[in-house]
């Protein structure tokens, strides 16, 4: 459509630039003929633009996204062309009717069907995911409604008044929905603080094994604090404090996890005969880690009290075990294996009478 209109316009422009006529000659009627032809051609162009607008609006409104906001933007562009016979009211009424039927009502249906189990992004926790879902749904109907309210011709329109009532009702439901889940999240902050006040480590009594005392719910709340700050959603001071500490907490968890893993690997690789020799070092490491059983928690600022001594003792223990293993293997086991391949005494096969 636009290619044909552009071609017609370029042709008229070329004819005008190459056309020769005398404006001061009253007998020269070429300009009048050209002007009448130009006026007729421009009317045809306006008519074609009108048809293209009607087709484009129909395509936009009946597309899978059927977003009224996009249709309004297209309508505004055509209004800026200032076509004489173009009346945007008819198209505007079609858009608001479509908005009421295909956007407001569908959002209302989706809300009623999915509010208990909404579609949440993969990396979003459930509570904040629901809040962001409600905001996305509200944004779908808000953008077009704001543009409608800017239109003076829709001020006293009966359809628009009905749309306003429905919009306010749906917006109120989304606000209450967000408020309830936001309040629920606010109440969980005290629970997560209590979890973070627990000791770093716990010990299983039967095998005396140490385990990290870290609840995965802490990660959920830290992620929620991060998302709340990103989307500028209100958050108490405690949430901002956790947000500032999240890197330190996660780093401490990974560091403690590596520490216990290295300690377990050393014990597993140690030669059975070397247990008594490294018992003193093992006791020192265990005593250092025992600080995490009573004195330190995830909110403590002095976690280096457990990390630095334990890492140093584990490093010493690793070197000591390596030396012991080397001595046992190269000074004892290998010589014994080598000697075992030689015959020390050879007895004759003949029997002794």
UniProtKB/TrEMBL annotation:
Residues in Dynein heavy chain tail domain copies: 3-305
One GO location term (cellular component): axonemal dynein complex
UniProt record similarity statement: Belongs to the dynein heavy chain family.
GO biological process: microtubule-based movement
An MF annotation (GO) of this entry: dynein light intermediate chain binding
Domain of life per record: Eukaryota
Organism, scientific name: Rotaria magnacalcarata
InterPro entries for the chain: DHC, Dynein_heavy_tail
The protein, known as: Dynein heavy chain tail domain-containing protein
């Amino acid at each position: 459509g636009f290619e044909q209109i552009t071609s017609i316009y370029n042709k008229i422009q070329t004819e005008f630039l190459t056309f020769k006529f005398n404006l001061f000659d009253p007998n020269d009627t070429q300009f009048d003929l050209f002007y009448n032809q130009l006026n007729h051609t421009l009317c045809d162009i306006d008519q074609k633009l009108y048809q293209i607008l009607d087709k484009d609006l129909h395509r936009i409104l009946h597309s899978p996204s059927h977003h009224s906001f996009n249709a309004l933007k297209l309508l505004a562009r055509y209004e800026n062309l200032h076509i004489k016979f173009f009346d945007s009211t008819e198209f505007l009424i079609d858009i608001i009717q479509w908005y009421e039927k295909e956007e407001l009502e569908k959002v209302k249906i989706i809300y009623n069907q999915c509010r208990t189990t909404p579609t949440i992004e993969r990396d979003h926790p459930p509570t904040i995911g629901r809040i962001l879902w409600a905001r996305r749904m509200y944004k779908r109907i808000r953008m077009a409604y704001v543009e409608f309210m800017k239109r003076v011709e829709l001020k006293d329109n009966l359809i628009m008044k009905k749309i306003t009532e429905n919009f306010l009702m749906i917006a109120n439901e989304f606000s209450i929905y967000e408020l309830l889940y936001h309040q629920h999240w606010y109440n969980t902050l005290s629970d997560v603080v209590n979890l973070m006040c627990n000791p770093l480590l716990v010990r299983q009594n039967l095998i005396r094994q140490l385990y990290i005392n870290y609840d995965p719910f802490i990660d959920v709340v830290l992620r929620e604090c991060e998302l709340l700050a990103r989307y500028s959603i209100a958050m108490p001071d405690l949430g901002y404090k956790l947000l500032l500490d999240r890197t330190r907490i996660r780093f401490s968890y990974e560091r403690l996890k590596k520490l216990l893993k290295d300690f377990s690997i050393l014990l597993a690789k140690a030669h059975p005969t070397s247990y008594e020799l490294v018992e003193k070092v093992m006791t020192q490491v265990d005593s250092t880690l025992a600080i995490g059983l009573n004195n330190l928690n995830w909110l403590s600022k002095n976690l280096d009290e457990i990390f630095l001594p334990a890492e140093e003792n584990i490093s010493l223990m690793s070197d000591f075990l390596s030396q012991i293993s080397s001595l046992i293997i190269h000074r004892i086991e290998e010589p014994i294996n080598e000697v075992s391949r030689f015959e020390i005494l050879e007895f004759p096969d003949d029997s002794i009478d």
